[in-house]
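User: I've been trying to design a sequence by hand for this structure and keep getting stuck. Would you show me what you'd pick, starting by listing the structure so we're on the same page?

Assistant: Good idea, let's start from the same input. This is the structure you sent:
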């Protein structure tokens, strides 16, 4: 039998992290060992001499080799923290990113400055990360997360049931197609036209063929979640146009987008009758979220 200290030492001896964005393999090895043993980091560090059962050691070694082969740690652990909760994740969904919390912050800021916001949509909800964070923020809000992928929606529903209340629902469909707008109206038992106060979306926005798609976690994430035609702008263009089917006058549309898409997104919003257009920067100082109000 090997001890905790021996397992960690072997895991990290002479190894380097599998991609430049990952924290050290030591930290990741600790996460994988915590998962295999079902224990806390504190217990791992307090009792390094504790022996590991052969089955726990085998499952740790197996997880470690998956990580060394490049699989995202979030998919191996099956969980990823976002906002103030942990989401279940699988290869059916994008792994929620810390920069996407800016989309949540920006929507919450709008809500604190405007009374009466009630109906909110999260288009392309994936794991449900953004929709869940917003539904948890205020019980009076009625939130729907949508996605084209039924596998993603199945996971979002699981996360939503565990983490949010009955003010959150999920619907399948493409952006704001007429069919989906009708389903939204049915779900809220109202005419969907002009009903929605805020639409948020972190749509796919990477241009097909962008070299970033060949690196790190992106290699393992669903293509549907990552790339969009027209230099990455097709989904955003569609959402801007279709948003007017449900957004009320004075309602807000917020996007996460690529660091170099600020002007293009602002131009699309302006051309479609939005005002008060503003771009916000993420913690890395990159242009990341643009919002506009329907005039
Ligand atoms: C970048 S991921 C965002 C996931 C999640 N909102 C997040 O921030 O972690 C984009 C999501 O859009 C969904 N998607 C792609 N095309 C779509 C479409 N035509 N209609 C609705 N959702 C779509 C993908 O399945 C994916 O879940």
């Amino acid at each position: 039998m090997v001890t905790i200290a021996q397992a960690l030492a072997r895991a990290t001896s002479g190894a380097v992290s599998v991609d430049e964005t990952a924290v050290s393999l030591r930290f990741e090895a600790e996460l994988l060992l915590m998962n295999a043993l079902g224990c806390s980091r504190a217990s791992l560090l307090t009792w390094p001499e504790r022996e590991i059962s052969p089955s726990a050691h085998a499952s740790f070694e197996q997880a470690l080799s998956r990580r060394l082969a490049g699989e995202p740690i979030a998919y191996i652990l099956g969980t990823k923290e976002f906002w103030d909760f942990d989401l279940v994740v699988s290869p059916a969904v994008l792994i929620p990113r810390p920069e996407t919390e800016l989309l949540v912050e920006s929507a919450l800021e709008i809500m604190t400055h405007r009374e009466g916001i009630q109906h909110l949509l999260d288009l392309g909800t994936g794991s449900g990360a953004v929709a869940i964070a917003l539904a948890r923020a205020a019980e009076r809000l009625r939130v729907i997360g949508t996605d084209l992928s039924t596998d993603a929606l199945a996971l979002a529903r699981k996360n939503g049931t565990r983490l949010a209340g009955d003010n959150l629902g999920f619907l399948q469909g493409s952006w704001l197609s007429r069919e989906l707008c009708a389903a939204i109206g049915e779900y809220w038992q109202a005419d969907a036209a002009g009903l929605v106060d805020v639409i948020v979306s972190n749509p796919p926005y990477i241009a097909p063929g962008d070299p970033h798609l060949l690196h790190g976690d992106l290699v393992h994430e669903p293509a549907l979640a990552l790339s969009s035609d027209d230099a990455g702008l097709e989904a955003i263009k569609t959402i801007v146009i279709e948003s007017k089917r449900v957004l009320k006058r004075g309602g807000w549309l917020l996007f996460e987008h690529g660091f170099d898409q600020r002007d293009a997104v602002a131009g699309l919003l302006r051309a479609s009758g939005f005002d008060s257009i503003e771009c916000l920067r993420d913690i890395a100082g990159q242009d990341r979220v643009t919002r506009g109000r329907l005039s």
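That's my pick for every position. To get oriented when you compare it with your attempt: The longest strand covers residues 247-256. The radius of gyration is 21 Å.
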